[in-house]
Amino acid sequence: MRRRVRHIALGRGAWIVAKGGVYRARCECAKYFRAPIPGVPAGGGYSLEVRNAVANALIRDRLPYRKVQERMREDFLLKLSVGYIHDCFLWAHGQIDDKARLRWAVENFSGVLCIDEVHDAARTILYATDPLNDFTAAFEIVERNDQEHMDAFLAGLRDKGFCPKVVITDGSPLYKDALQEVWRGIEHQLCVFHVIQEVNKLILEGVRAVKNRIDRQGNKGRKRRRGRPCKGRKRPRAARKTDEARWIWRHQHLIVKRAENMTDEEKATLDQMVRIAPELKTIRRFNRDFYKLFERDLTKQQARCRRTRMAKNPAYQSNPFLVRALKKLRAERFEKIITYLGWQEMERTSNHVERNNRSFRMLQKTRYKRRRAHTIRIAIELDLYARMLNHPLFQPRRGEEQRVKRKNKTPNGLLSPRRKAA
Question: Tens digits of per-residue pLDDT, 387-399?
């Protein structure tokens, strides 16, 4: 029997032509069997090289199905259907071993976990990543982002073999007690980026209040236009803003911008804002002291002293917006914010898992057919497996594994807390 199977060759059509025998079984079933052709799946019209090229375009290059069709037609003169491309996607998942990837993740785990979630339509995907060794440890697709599913996800991480020393999360209340219940004695690091975002939002609310006060003073005593208001007007007239209020509102971002990142022009603009509204000087000084809490060369005790001085400052206590910002830095919560100061080369933000979430969203934008839980799971597992194959720690002698370490380790190798300065 003579068979022709489509193969790939750059810029031209290619076939595998083979002669194979057809055999009849000797048993009572009397079925017929064809001899297998190397490099061709049983009963397939395309070679395994075609399937491999399609799978690489989908997984490694992250192309949508229509773009894969165009690439295969332009490069190899192959006209493939969307159904066949999806079959290659499922075939590729059958070739990997996700349990082996999980074992590799556990063996190369640094001791630090970043945990966050990404929402996709009516479901939520929980992610746990290792920021020091730069890989995704595990994920789980759940129906709702609630305490029950979060507890199950954390327990699953423990059962898989992950025993972290530090866990980095945002300020969600789902992690407050769940982490200690699953891993006793674990240290919880709140994302510094989210804390800065929350406090700066309150600071800008204080700037808005100053702007509104100046605007009211500028409009005070002004008379409205003569005559009765128009009855057809459905919404009130816009309030008149003074030039000074507009100036402050246009440059409000300078109040929360770091001084080392400012240009000379921006510094002059900030000085002019302070001259217009002297109360902005207190807000700006608060923001500057707030950023000093997160300097890398501090000890925990020094950070606590700086926070205490801010909390006892009478100028800050007289501003209601700064009082609300200080509540974000209460002592119990502040201990979780400065956890990174007790470790060497520790991450202090959850940016690693946030980048992982953005990568997933970019992947979903080109995968309109992947809207079911099982297809999303297959896509993520294929992506994580491909990233593992290219990871420096996967190849021998190409990378150095990192482990989280406490500062001031004792000579005998035991971990000890950081001592107070003499």
Answer: 999 999 987 545 5
Q: Are 44 and 56 contained in the same domain?
A: yes
Range of the domain at 56: 2-95
Distance CA 36, CA 257 (A): 68
Residue 325 and residue 212 in one domain: yes
Q: Is residue 119 part of a domain?
A: yes
Contacts 24+ apart (CB under 8 A), 218-225: 218/242, 218/244, 218/245
Of residues 313, 262, 254, the one with CA closest to residue 284: 254
The Cα–Cα gap between 266 and 254 comes to: 7
pLDDT in tens, 41-66: 887 889 999 999 999 999 888 888 88
How would DSSP label each residue in 368-391?
Answer: TT--SHHHHHHHHHHHHHHHHHT-
pTM of the model: 0.82
CA angle 58, 364, 361 (to 5 degrees): 125
Domain match, 184 and 311 both: no
Which CATH number is 150's domain given?
A: 3.30.420.10
CA distances from 327 to 194, 321, 332 (A): 15, 10, 10
Question: How many domains would you assign to the chain?
Answer: 3
Question: Are 209 and 265 within one domain?
Answer: yes
